[in-house]
Amino acid sequence: MVSMSLTSVPAHAGDAGPRPAMLVLPGGGYAGQAGHEAEPVAEWLASLGIHAYVLRYRVAPHRHPAPLEDAKEALLRIRSGSHGVAVDGARVGVLGFSAGGHLAATLSTAAATGDDTLDVRAAVPDLTVLCYPVVSYKEAVHQGSVDNLLGASPSETLLHAVSADLQVTASTPPAFIWHTADDASVPAHHSFAYAGALVRAGVPAELHVFPHGRHGLGLAEEDPGPDQWTSLCANWLARTGWIQSSPSAM
C-alpha cells in the first residue's frame, strides 16, 4: 500500500508503561487530506498522554475499499506495537474528521474489505471520536465523498454497505461525536443518525451539536462554541479511563 503513510506523535506525558493510542484520519472528501486535521490534532492528543498516529490513506482515483484497507492495516500495526512505542493494545481508538469521520465510522462498524487478513476483530477500534462526520451514503449525502470513494452510479447494495449508521451493532465501540447545526457541507443529520444507531444498539454515545460553525473547523480554537469540543472530548476520555482527569488535560 505504497500511497499510505503513518506518522507517529508519541504521548508527551503520562504514566510509565503502555499508553492508549489514537489513529487520526483527516478529512478531505476522499480527494485529499486536510493538514489542520492531521498533526495539530495528533499533538493535542499527545498532550493528553495518548500516542497519536496520523494516517495519509489512499484517496481518489483509488476507490473503496482502498482507504479502508489502509485504515485497517494502520490500526493493526498500531495495536501490535511493532512501531517501537509502548501502546496498550487493548486501548486503540480512532478519530476522524468529515470524510475521515466516515472512514473512522466504517472502521468502527467492521465494514468488510474482502481481505481476510484485514477483516479481523483486532482491526476494529476500541473507541471512536467523530468530528462533523460523513456517515450516510443514502440520506443527506455528501456527493463529493460518494463520487470520490465509489465512482459513478454505485449500486444500492454498496451504498448501504458503506452507510455506517446502518451497520451499527451491539459490538460497535462507544463514540464521542460533534457537529454544528448549520454545517452547509455535511448536514448534522449524519451525526444524529450514527448516535441514534448507537443508542438503539445499547452502545454508549455522547453527541454535541453546536448552533453555529462552518464545516472543517478542526480543533476550532478560535470558534466560540465549537472550541469547547476538545475539552468535552478530553472529559469523555477521562471518564472512559483513557487519560488522567486533571486541569492540564482538560
Q: What attributes does this structure have?
A:
alpha/beta; 7 helices; 250 residues; globular; 7 strands
In round numbers, the mean pLDDT is: 94
Note poorly predicted spans.
none
Number of strands: 7
Biggest β-sheet, characterized? 7 strands, mixed
Strand residue content: 15-25%
What's the helix count?
A: 7
Return the string of H and E elements.
Answer: EEHEHEHEHHEHEH
Terminal CA distance: 37 Å
The outline comes out as globular
Which structural category fits the helices and strands? alpha/beta
Question: Can you summarize this structure?
Answer:
With 250 residues, this protein is of the alpha/beta class. It has seven helices and seven strands.
Commentary on this structure:
The chain has 7 helices and 7 strands, in the order E-E-H-E-H-E-H-E-H-H-E-H-E-H. It has helices at 39-47, 66-80, 98-108, 143-150, 156-161, 189-200, 229-239; strands spanning 5-9, 19-25, 51-56, 87-97, 128-131, 175-180, 205-210. The protein has a 7-stranded mixed sheet with strand order 1-3-2-4-5-6-7, with helices on both faces. The protein has 250 residues and is an alpha/beta fold. The longest helix has 15 residues, at 66-80. Strand 6, helix 6 and strand 7 (205-210) form a beta-alpha-beta unit.
